[in-house]
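My current task is to audit a protein record that another person submitted. I need someone to confirm that the token line plausibly describes how this chain folds. Take the sequence as given and treat only the tokens as open to question. This is what I was given:
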Amino acid sequence: METTKKGRSFKLIALDLDGTLLNRHHEISNENRKAIAEAVEKGVQVVISTGRHVKSCKNYADSLQLSSYLVAVNGGEIWDPSGNLIERNPLQQDFVQTMWELCHQHGTRFWAMTPDSEFREGFPNEITKREWLKFGFDLDDQEIRETILTELRKNKQIEISNSSPLNIEVNALGINKANALKKVCNRIGISMDQVLAVGDSLNDLAMIQEAGCGVAMGNAQDLVKESADWITDTNEADGVAKAIRYWVLNEKMV
């Protein structure tokens, strides 16, 4: 891997937020900021690619002074550099109804996203009259988790992932960060081979597998590490900066 990918010219860096670019305080470290700024100065596009709603991730892109695309809600939405919505991919409303019933049946915590709102406490009565982007289960009990996953897997029209080992995230079928990034690449005239993707959870898995170089954080879930081309340091130890410096800025590891 080192001999085939080291020295490749990466034109786009795709960065997950939670567990990747952000530390446990939900902050971007100075080292990460410096490395990103140097990559941008070199002409590389940096794209935030996250499961978060655009309302809770755009401020991070703005703080980095990025003028690039934004992939939100695991690819449920793609925004252009001017802040215009390019694409929105909703879940079927009856699927959301079923997942809400599963959540209620098993007494799990949840969150759900519409284009305008994020619900974590209380749920609207008129589910089928809203447009839904993602539904998430937040749970500690592994047995209940497996029971819910078994039920969800019966539906072949949804995409199942997670953003931590303690949750389940559901998007519409085919909606993931990799497919969203392919559309971004097409717009700017590059290929996925020119993408460096960095993440830690199952909702990062597709982009890590399909990028020219997929990097797992040191704190990543095991399957993500197994699927990555390279493993960097943790999100508490500037893992993003170290990956950018090694793969994009071509600095030697100390």
